[in-house]
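Blinded run. Sample ID left blank on purpose so nobody reads anything into the name before looking at the predicted structure. Input follows.
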Amino acid sequence: MIVFNSPGGNVGSALRLGRMIRAAGLDTLQLRQLQCASACSLAFLGGVHRVAEPGSIGIHRAWLKSVDGMSREEAKARVQLGTTAITSYVVEMGVDPELMELASSYDKHDIRYLSASEMAELRVTNVAANQSPADTSQVSTRPDPAPVPAPDARQQAESAAVAFVKDLIEHHGDNDDFALAQVQASYARTVDYYGKLTNLSSIIQDKRNYYRRWPERIYNVRNDSIVVTCANDRCMVSGIYDWVVRSPSIHKQDKGASNFSYTISTGPYPKIIAETSKVRS
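Blinded prediction complete.
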C-alpha cells in the first residue's frame, strides 16, 4: 500500500512512478490530512486499487516553466505534447480522460480538490473510502460487464516489456545525468544498436552527444501504436513516439514522430539487447 504526502513535482517522474506502482501490483491510499496535489495525483493513479478521502486529491492544468528564448509557439507545442502524454497515461491507468478536462479549468495557483463522487465518477478511485482495498466486491461505480480473467505468464511478460520500454523512452526527457543513468541500467553490455553490435560505453557516449545537442527533450509513446511479442525469454516492443527537442543556446527546436523497436531479454533484470528507430516526419 502506497500513501503519499507531496505537493507535486516533476510530471515525468510522477508518470514513471505511477507505472512502477501498477507494474508492482500495489494499491494507493490518500488521506485528507496528508497532501497529494499536482503531479502527485498522477502517481496516485498507478494504484491497482485506489482509495482516497474526499478533498485529498488536487489537480490543475498542465503548465510549462518559463524558459528564456522560448517563443510562444514553442511553449504551446511543448505544453500540448506534455498534455497528450498525461492524457495517454490517464487512459492507460483506466481513469476517465474527462479528468483532464476538469483539470484544465484550474491553474497551479488554484488547485481543485476532488469530492468523493467526482473521484468515483472519473475512476480516480475504484474502492470506496470506507472499504478495504482487499474487498473488491464494489471496486468501481462502473463495474465491467464481465469479470476480467487474471493475466497469464505471457500477458504479464508483454505488459512488463511495454512498461519497461515506455519508461526508457520517456526517461530520455530527463536531465542528462538521470537519462544516462537509465541507459546504464537498462542496456546489456553489448547491443544490436541500429544494426551494429555496439558496447554499452559507446551507446552511452552516443546518447550523451545527442543530449548535449538537444538539452531539452520531451517524448510521448503512442499507446495505440504499440506491438509486443514475447517468446524464448525475449520480448520485442515496437511502436511510434512523438518528440520535441530544443537547444536554447542556438535557438533551435525540432519535433516529429519516430518508429521504434526494442528487443529485451526478460527475467528479474531485463536488459535492452537491440534498438533501432527511424524518423517518420
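Unblinding after everyone has recorded impressions. The CA atoms of residues 221 and 241 lie 4 Å apart.
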